[in-house]
Amino acid sequence: MEGWRSWTLLSMTSRARGGGGLPSLVAIVNSIIMNHVTIEDNCTIQGSVISSNVQIQERASLKDCQVGAGYVITAGRDCEYKSEPLTKR
């Protein structure tokens, strides 16, 4: 389809530490981010769909993931998810 483009929808409620504002060093590429999502510092999100009320803690990396509503992605240096559906049990 001519003129078709890939869009990134970014609707982020940031609750960064240290007085608020946008988190630092966050990369979001070709992803859909729903409402009321918290993304902390140093996160990378690529080709993923993030549902509402998700918390992505610092240094998390997501690639080609589907994250269900209310899920918490834990912090960590080696916290990397690839091609995974992540949902609450």
From TrEMBL:
The keyword DNA-binding does not apply. It is found in: Cytoplasm, Cytosol. One of its GO terms (molecular function) is translation initiation factor activity. GO terms for cellular component: cytosol; eukaryotic translation initiation factor 2B complex. Transmembrane segments: none annotated. Keywords: Cytoplasm, Initiation factor, Protein biosynthesis. Residues 27-76 form the Glucose-1-phosphate adenylyltransferase/Bifunctional protein GlmU-like C-terminal hexapeptide domain. SUPFAM superfamilies: Trimeric LpxA-like enzymes (SSF51161). Its main location: cytoplasm. InterPro entries: eIF2B_gamma, GlmU/GlgC-like_hexapep, Trimer_LpxA-like_sf. Component of the translation initiation factor 2B (eIF2B) complex which is a heterodecamer of two sets of five different subunits: alpha, beta, gamma, delta and epsilon. Subunits alpha, beta and delta comprise a regulatory subcomplex and subunits epsilon and gamma comprise a catalytic subcomplex. Within the complex, the hexameric regulatory complex resides at the center, with the two heterodimeric catalytic subcomplexes bound on opposite sides. This is Translation initiation factor eIF-2B subunit gamma.
